[in-house]
Inverse folding.
């Protein structure tokens, strides 16, 4: 409930506002045609206050919608943990996903291990983590193609990675030695959103975060 106490009909200088959360619910569950309109002849509401109040209602609605979207995303996200050993420095591509879905990857390898990783989100390459020595292998995904499975082998470090896409393509890096792992999304129609793990001059460990592909927030177009 909202109550106004004014000195006179033309001033909002002295207003007492009592907030009732049920009022917000009323605005969202009712037909928009039922939202009360400001009429100075029928109520002594101050026009500036009324505008401020409706702006507040709109902001609350946006926050509730964002919260609901986050709840749906987290409900259909999955993460099985990291494969490999500890040590090194933690890394994560979680912030890069604001640029759009994964559209490419770059990997460095030596004769024994995977030593560096980089992912492209939308048209933007994310941060590179790992050793910068030697040639880098690059693969770009096709429009609408997603990574739907990752397998590999680990020992003290990540020795091998194999990415499988929704189009049946396979990208393999490193050497097939060590303990095998196979990671895939828990929910159908979800795909790889980002990767996290630990690195130094090699990749110590790696984990895969699955979910619905996020919308593009900071997209950049090709120049």
């Amino acid at each position: 409930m909202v109550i106004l106490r004014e000195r006179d009909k033309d001033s909002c200088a002295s207003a007492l506002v009592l907030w009732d959360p049920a009022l917000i619910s009323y605005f969202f569950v009712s037909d928009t045609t039922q939202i009360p309109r400001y009429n100075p002849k029928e109520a002594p509401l101050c026009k500036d206050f009324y505008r401020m109040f409706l702006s507040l209602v709109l902001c609350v609605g946006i926050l509730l919608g964002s919260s609901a979207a986050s709840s749906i995303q987290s409900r259909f996200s999955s993460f099985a943990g990291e494969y490999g050993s500890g040590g090194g420095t933690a890394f994560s591509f979680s912030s890069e996903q604001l640029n759009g879905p994964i559209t490419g990857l770059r990997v460095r390898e030596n004769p024994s291990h995977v030593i560096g990783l980089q992912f492209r989100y939308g048209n933007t390459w994310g941060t590179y983590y790992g050793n910068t020595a030697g040639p880098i292998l690059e693969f770009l995904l096709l429009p609408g193609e997603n990574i739907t499975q990752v397998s590999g082998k680990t020992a003290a470090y990540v020795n091998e990675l194999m990415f499988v896409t929704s189009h049946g393509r396979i990208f393999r890096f490193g050497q097939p030695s060590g303990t095998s792992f196979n990671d895939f999304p828990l929910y159908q129609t979800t795909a790889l959103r980002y990767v996290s793990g630990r690195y130094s001059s090699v990749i110590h460990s790696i984990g895969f975060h699955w979910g619905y592909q996020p919308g593009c927030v900071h997209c950049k177009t090709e120049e």
User: Anything to note?
Assistant: The longest strand covers residues 191-199. Confidence is low (pLDDT under 50) at residues 1-32, 57-73. The chain has two domains: 21-74, 78-211. The chain is about 15% helix and 35% strand.
